[in-house]
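Okay, any thoughts on this one?
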Amino acid sequence: MRKLHAVLLIWAALGVSACTTTSDRFNSPDSSPQAALESYTSLGLQYLRAGNTASAKGPLQRALEIDADYAPAFNALALVFQAEEDLALSESYFRKAVAADPQSAMIHNNFGAFLFSQQRYEEACQELTRATEDPFYQARAQAFENMGRCYRKIGRLDIAEHAFNRALTLSRQRPIAMIELADILLAKGDKAGAAVLFDQFREYVDAKQIDHFALSLWVGVRVARFEKNSGRAATYALLLKNMFPESAEYQLYKESAQ
């Protein structure tokens, strides 16, 4: 989780488990087409996790030879081409994946992440909202966090606040959601609520599970001011100046200090 702040949205698909006996499943006389599909797709994702995108393509193409409409293989190829920065091809495979399995929360989350990375926020928010609709999606808390960050980008703070609250209800281990929600609460004047969330975030920093980032430091400055802790406010301000001098948050700090 260290340096999680550097990752805007995470490829949930890479969490698909890969069987350690993949070759056995290909060759077993009892293997079914479905088992082969899953094994080829898992093998492709193993290569992608290892950063070997060239080798990832072969097994995924083999899966599509077995089933030309297999959504997980389309999704995995979209991630492969996204990693290679072939964005047009990546989008085309994401759209094939969505068409093949429109109910897949994982695919909607990954496609939303792709669109977010392209600053196509309106489209991204739609996909990420779809990802939160499946109550059995294992990464649903992450999907709500992603959704909240997206809706902040288009100024819908009401929806963003709801999404961050849902993320934290589903999983308290979402330090990014804590800071994003604390920032919204500060804007609404709920400084006490923001202070509670920031204290929870600090526990992750103290445990070295995440580093401060520009927004967390700016939230820290304002919470420390509310708590009348001038020393802590000054510390956060100095860190913000030294670590993120070009950030929007540092500009807001300078304006607030005038």
